[in-house]
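Lab notebook, design round three. We kept the backbone fixed and only want residue identities now. Task for the bench partner: fill in a sequence for the structure below.
Input structure tokens:
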């Protein structure tokens, strides 16, 4: 990946950190973002010590104005962006909102990536075969996408269910980027890393964390991220369906009641329009 530049969100720990390190080892210049400045800077320093190229920035993906400022800076500095890895995540046991009053899980997993990708779309379109990789979760297999119930209110809030619903929405959003932007040379994939031993898992789902040696190491969970972001998936595999695990396309549905009531395409169009309305961006399909 010599000469290519990739942005990785949520790079301060877990899958994001492992993805950033893996991409740097392949020669990419990696732009790192995270909410914790100290940890994000530590990842930057680790990559540089190993002979790689990295630059860290503080970014909360739930904060719209922070995203706009960061994206504006990148557009001024870069001629193109070859890859964008959405690895930032949030699983909160208690109800929380972002600065605009949006439930934090949806703000971080859905609206934040939508806004950042939309703002950086011109840079992606200028690259030769840019790739977007979205890190979802196997937890999404438990939920059907239903737009009216995507944003949970304070009274009904359940952290794990909110997380699963937003991760299901991420799958649809990734397919919409592929469907709408592939004509401009941008490919979009969505993957899940399997059950991986990360700080987020230990804090949010301690019962799973106790599985210990049965869990994957972060670099194992990030392997498919790095593989996809490097452009290793050939053109024949680029379709606007399927979720990737261990370098293979898998089904998006295992439980019959989670399948779309109408079609995944209609759900994706509906979600895209909702994101446009909530962010005030669009209406446009074009990344230029």
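Proposed sequence:
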């Amino acid at each position: 990946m010599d000469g290519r530049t990739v942005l990785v969100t949520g790079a301060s720990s877990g899958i994001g950190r492992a993805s950033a390190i893996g991409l740097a080892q392949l020669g990419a210049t990696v732009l790192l973002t995270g909410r914790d400045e100290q940890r994000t800077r530590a990842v930057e320093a680790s990559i540089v010590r190993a002979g790689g190229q990295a630059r860290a920035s503080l970014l909360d993906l739930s904060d719209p104005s922070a995203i706009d400022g960061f994206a504006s800076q990148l557009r001024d500095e870069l001629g193109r962006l070859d890859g964008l890895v959405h690895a930032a995540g949030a699983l909160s046991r208690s109800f929380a909102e972002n600065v605009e009053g949006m439930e934090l899980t949806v703000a971080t997993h859905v609206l934040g990536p939508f806004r950042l990708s939309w703002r950086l779309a011109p840079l992606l379109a200028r690259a030769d075969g840019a790739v977007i990789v979205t890190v979802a979760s196997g937890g999404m297999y438990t939920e059907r996408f239903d737009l009216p119930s995507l944003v949970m209110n304070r009274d009904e809030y359940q952290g794990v269910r909110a997380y699963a619903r937003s991760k299901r929405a991420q799958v649809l959003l990734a397919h919409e980027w592929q469907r709408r932007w592939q004509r401009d040379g941008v490919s979009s994939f969505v993957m899940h890393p399997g059950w991986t031993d990360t700080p987020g898992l230990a804090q949010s789902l301690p019962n799973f964390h106790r599985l210990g040696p049965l869990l994957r190491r972060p670099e194992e969970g990030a392997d498919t991220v790095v593989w996809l972001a490097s452009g290793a998936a050939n053109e024949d595999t680029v379709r606007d369906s399927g979720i990737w695990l261990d370098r293979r396309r898998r089904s998006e549905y295992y439980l019959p009641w989670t399948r779309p009531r109408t079609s995944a395409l209609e759900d994706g169009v509906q979600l895209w329009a909702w994101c446009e309305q909530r962010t005030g961006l669009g209406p446009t399909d074009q990344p230029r």
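Keep this in mind before ordering anything: The chain has a mean pLDDT of 90.
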